[in-house]
Specification:
Chain lengths: 270, 477
């Protein structure tokens, strides 16, 4: 199955880039929207949360950076990868149904389409995180060699989304409920993951009993990678990498198992 | 090159049909303990093999499983059971232009199609100029294809598929979109490919093309193989079964007799809907026994069944009621396909309910495009009308042609009032079919033959003018 992906690599990369180019086709902003949307999101979140969260952040001063800017760095280092993850997953779930026209006529393996969406998500995240890096340096933060760890972390995170997306897109062919359901789950998942708030929120009396949620949150080790490498510019512990790799492996194993089980019927049901 | 390039064994495809998505959920959640689906068999027990360089045809009415078979062979669908083996690379015109993006240029679309088909782009690039030359769209190749005509699109698509050197090439109806010259070019190209060992699977409603090009053919009916063998024999069986009386005829014990010289296929498979038509057939048999002996000789059950089972357009007062229509060859054999140089005979039988002083019977031929090619009536032909007495039978016979062009035609027959008031007593639209195949000598092209004479004369130029101009040599009459 992976051999098939290699055979269609040209298609995957070209279509992913094409997708980014045409996502905002017909708009005046065009390509710029790939940057403007996350930027606007960051501004809103940082404005809201730097007011609410200032107290906590002062414990974690970044030398030479105003504390509200420190929060923006924290926010971006988690939010941008999360956006890429959520976007990839949401698109991945609808991928097979969305490409029914191709699937019904061409012998292209199913996973090619989900992988194309993942590749588009990866490229888009590279773009926004690169931009974020430039802005951070301009603001006087970094650059640090530890930031480079974000690259493999992003790769793993997107690959995790790909595995989940493959699994759910197969099911979505038969039950179209999966797609709307996934949007709800993603929203809940987002607020259960320390992206816009600090992990230290679980130190607050009363909330500490919820800390176990992090242990079972597959997205947590990934987000942790980004926080450590970008915000703390420290070395990501091996245990975190292992957790990420395991989740990625498990998701892809489940995805391919589902595809293997269902592929006989997928094109019939489309 | 081995013997069999394509080997298909007992291929069966059944679709699971669920009344509601929830029914499927129930099955999933019970891990298969409950069954909530019904099976629809699209293809059943199909086996055949194709040799290297062979041209193999697949025919059958709509819904007979042709597309399902092609989808399985191109690996777009997975069979429920059975297996197939294809040596080498398969490309299919089934996906003709599927991956085309309207905004991209012809050249960019060639590259994109190559990617979609899983071909190496560099390899396709080396063949690109050949493709463009074949498609004959040099001037437009760098324009977005949204400006292309549909003919140009088909040419481009065919050019791509024909130049990636497949080992097995699957062509479906799509090829009939282009103009006739391009179609000829395509078949020439296919011949070249065959010479190099490419095997061709051709699915078409164009029985003429099947007969002309195919070595062997498979006739599918409701997913089952009805006939496998010589292409000409396969089309004959198909044409006979497709005639409206054919299905009824096939119920008779002689159904299996159709398998002349072909490999044995699904023995004893009765035509579908057999229970429904059996009762009707019985009625027709009863009706036939009421007919005067001479009429019973002409009109068999199928001719009666054709009208009894007719569900198409029918108007009229009913003063005269058409009960049977039969199409046959000049020798009396029931047949609906003819060569260009053959006559065909249409017999119409009507029961007269009321006395009619001046009646006429009409016949009209309409081609596939819905154009009335020709029509006449007994009044026009003989300049007299007929008088019908209540309680009698009226039998009209038209002997037509030759002169119809190559096409599929439908026949309208009717009894009407010839007094000028124009009452229609009974008129059946498209009650029978006449197909003219591209066989036999013909002195015309087009929809129909017209009486024509043509003289050609040669003239010498005037001695003085000869030196000045050779162009004035045209005859001047």
């Amino acid at each position: 199955m992976v051999v098939n992906l290699w055979r269609f690599r040209g298609l995957i990369v070209r279509n992913a880039l094409h997708e980014l180019r045409t996502r905002y086709a017909g708009s005046v902003g065009g390509y710029l929207w790939n940057v403007l949307v996350p930027l606007a999101q960051i501004i809103v979140f940082s404005t809201v949360f730097s007011v609410l969260m200032r107290q906590r952040l002062e414990e974690r001063q970044i030398p030479g950076l105003a504390s509200h800017l420190a929060f923006v760095v924290y926010l971006c280092s988690g939010l941008l990868p999360w956006n890429a993850f959520a976007d990839t997953l949401a698109r991945g779930v609808g991928s097979l149904v969305g490409h029914a026209g191709y699937l019904k006529k061409l012998p292209i393996p199913e996973q090619v389409f989900v992988t194309t969406d993942a590749a588009a998500g990866f490229f888009s995240a590279l773009l926004s995180m690169g931009l974020f890096g430039v802005v951070a340096v301009l603001l006087g933060y970094g650059p640090y060699a530890e930031w480079l760890q974000a690259l493999p972390a992003l790769g793993l995170f997107i690959a995790f989304a790909l595995g989940l997306g493959l699994l759910l897109s197969c099911v979505n062919v038969f039950f179209r409920d999966v797609q709307p359901l996934m949007n709800v789950v993603l929203l809940l998942w987002f607020w259960l993951t320390p992206v816009v708030y600090l992990e230290s929120i679980f130190d607050v009396p009363g909330l500490e009993r919820l800390r176990w949620l992090l242990t079972f949150n597959p997205a947590y080790p990934f987000i942790r990678c980004f926080h450590v490498s970008i915000f703390e510019h420290a070395i990501v512990p091996v245990g975190t990498w292992v957790a990420c790799a395991l989740w990625t492996l498990a998701a892809n194993a489940a995805g391919y198992a589902a595809l293997r089980r269902l592929r006989g019927e997928i094109r019939d049901a489309l | 090159m081995s013997e069999a390039k394509v080997q298909v064994e007992r291929l069966t495809k059944r679709f699971r049909m669920y009344a509601r998505p929830a029914a499927r959920l129930a099955e999933w959640l019970s891990f298969g303990a409950v069954t909530r689906h019904t099976l629809f068999t699209a293809l059943e027990d199909v086996s055949f093999s194709m040799k290297s360089g062979e041209f193999f045809g697949v025919i059958g009415p709509n819904g007979s499983g042709k597309s399902t078979l092609l989808k399985i062979l191109t690996r777009v669908m997975f069979p429920t059971s059975g297996s197939f083996r294809i040596e080498g690379r398969v490309t299919s015109l089934l996906e003709l232009g599927t991956g085309f993006s309207p905004e991209l240029s012809g050249r960019a679309n060639i590259a994109k199609s190559a990617r979609l088909l899983g071909f190496d782009e560099a390899y396709v690039r080396t063949r690109q100029e050949e493709m463009i030359a074949f498609a004959d769209i040099h001037a437009y190749i760098d324009q977005p294809i949204k400006f292309y005509s549909s003919g140009m699109l088909v040419r481009l698509a065919f050019a791509i598929f024909a130049h990636v050197e497949p080992d097995v090439f699957i062509i479906d109806e799509a090829l009939s979109v282009g103009d006739v010259y391009f179609a000829q070019k395509c078949f020439q190209r296919i011949d070249q490919m065959r010479a190099r060992g490419c095997t061709v699977l051709f699915v078409s409603h164009d029985l003429g093309a099947i007969r002309k090009y195919c070595d062997q053919a498979l006739y599918l009916h409701h997913g089952r193989p009805r006939f496998l063998g010589d292409a000409r024999a396969a089309t004959d069986v198909y044409l006979e079964a497709m005639s409206p009386g054919g299905a009824a005829r096939n119920l008779a014990p002689r159904e299996a007799a159709a398998d002349v010289g072909g490999a044995a296929v699904a023995p004893g498979s009765a035509a579908p809907g057999a229970t429904g038509s059996a009762a009707m057939l019985e009625r027709c048999t009863a009706m036939r026994s009421e007919l005067p002996a001479r009429l019973a000789d002409v009109f068999d059950e199928s001719a009666l069944a054709r009208v009894a089972a007719f569900v198409g357009g029918r108007i009229g007062t009913g003063a005269v009621e058409i009960v049977a229509v039969r199409v046959s060859a000049a020798d009396g054999a029931p047949r609906e396909h003819f060569g260009r140089d053959e006559r065909f005979v249409v017999d119409v039988l009507a029961r007269v309910r009321d006395n009619v002083e001046r009646a006429t019977v009409s016949l009209q031929v309409t081609n596939r495009l819905g154009v009335v090619v020709w029509g006449t009536n007994q009044h026009l032909l003989q300049r007299r009308t007929i008088r019908l007495r209540a309680g009698t039978w009226s039998h009209a016979r038209f002997v037509v042609g030759p002169g119809l062009g190559v096409d599929e035609h439908t026949l309208d027959v009717g009894f009407g009032d010839a007094t000028g008031e124009g009452h229609v007593f009974d008129r059946l639209t498209a009650v029978a079919r006449v197909q003219v195949l591209a066989e036999g000598a013909a002195d015309f092209v087009g929809a129909a033959r017209l009486p024509c004479e043509c003289d050609v004369s040669a003239y010498e130029p005037r001695p003085a003018a000869a030196a000045l101009s050779a162009a004035s040599s045209a005859p001047n009459r």
